[in-house]
Amino acid sequence: MRASIYISVSTYLDRNFETLLRLANKYQVKSLKHESEEYLKRAALQAVKADQILTMLIAANEYHLCRPALRFLVHRLANESNESLGRLKLNRYLPAWVRYIVSCIE
Questions:
Q1: What is the pLDDT of residues 35-72, one digit of tens each?
Q2: Would you say the C-alpha torsion 21, 27, 32, 33 has a positive or negative sign?
Q3: Which terminus, N or C, of the chain has the lesser number of Cβ atoms within 10 Å?
Q4: Does 86 fall in a domain?
């Protein structure tokens, strides 16, 4: 029996979300970008730390992922406490429209 040499993309997305999005954009790999969007819909984002969610949100916005994918990240970030959000200093990293949406959800 042969072992499969293919590893699912989601295995890499867990640790390298921003890097894979950058490469998908640079080399115009639409299937990888789409897989990144699907990953956000399937992933257990509640287990991911707030700073990692922020990094994913910045990358998703920068590389123009679809709005539903951004919405998952914004909703997950909005579940954080005010103390945690203050520690992240969102105003330094995110565009004004994302900060506005996070503040409306709270």
A1: 899 988 888 888 888 889 989 988 998 999 999 998 89
A2: positive
A3: N
A4: yes
SS (H, E, C) the chain: CCCCCCCCHHHHHHHHHHHHHHHHHHCCCHHHHHHHHHHHHHCCHHHCCHHHHHHHHHHHHHCCCCHHHHHHHHHHHHCCCHHHHHHHCHHHHCCHHHHHHHHHHC
Question: What would the two tokens of residue 31 be?
Answer: 């299937």
User: Residue 63 belongs to what domain range?
Assistant: 53-106
> Is 0.90 topped by the overall pTM?
no
Residue 25 within any structural domain of the chain: no
In a domain, 2, yes or no: no
- Is 26 domain-assigned? no
Count how many domains the chain has: 1
User: Alpha-carbon distance 16 to 84, whole Å?
Assistant: 23
